[in-house]
Amino acid sequence: MRHPSPIKLRRFVALTGLLVFVATAYAAPPSHGLGQMWPNAQDVSANPQWHVYVFERDQIHYIQVNDSSGAVRAAFAVANGTALVLPIGGDADRASVLQQSPGTRISAAAGQIVYHDTQSQVAMVPQADGIGWVVTTTPQASYSISASDCTLQNCGGRIAPPVNSTSQAQ
Predict the structure, then answer these.
(1) In total, how many domains does the chain have?
(2) Closest C-alpha to 39, from 30, 48, 47
(3) Where does residue 115 rank: exposed (0-12), middle (13-18), buried (19+ CB within 10 A)?
(4) Which terminal Cβ of the chain has fewer Cβ within 10 Å, N or C?
(5) Domain that holds residue 57
(6) pLDDT digits over 71-108, tens only?
(7) Is 64 part of any domain?
(8) In 142-163, which positions are buried (b, 16+ CB within 10 angstroms) versus exposed (e)?
(9) What angle (nearest 5°) sits at the alpha carbon of residue 115, between those of residues 38 and 83?
């Protein structure tokens, strides 16, 4: 009976290891951002039982809450004192928004605070049918914006060219 040479054996082991590594890399789902089990973001949770990730785009803060196993439970969008529940996570149907006056917060007795910043606070609230989530916001000072304030960079869209008064008359 003939045995493989040590060089062939090393090549076989190296090739097998490479194939296992590549298969594992392709089997793992990419984790980039909002909606992912383990997004590429810092965990900013105020409660060690939960994972909270915050993403920002176009001055909107997206807050995602995951449980200890990584499953997405709820997500919210917050901007200028207004919040929305996003249709993401296993508890999305039990998530709600509570608009409050400046300076007020959810009491600790109402639930466990899992995240807070200067604009918002997220709490886990036990319910009879599972876990609920409440995001509260503090209304921000109102402001107005005019067309002269907008540029392509800060209004996030295409600015229409000025209307020529001679072209309107036609």
Answers:
(1) 1
(2) 30
(3) buried
(4) N
(5) 51-137
(6) 999 999 999 888 999 999 999 999 999 866 555 555 54
(7) yes
(8) eeeeeeeeeeeeeeeeeeeeee
(9) 95
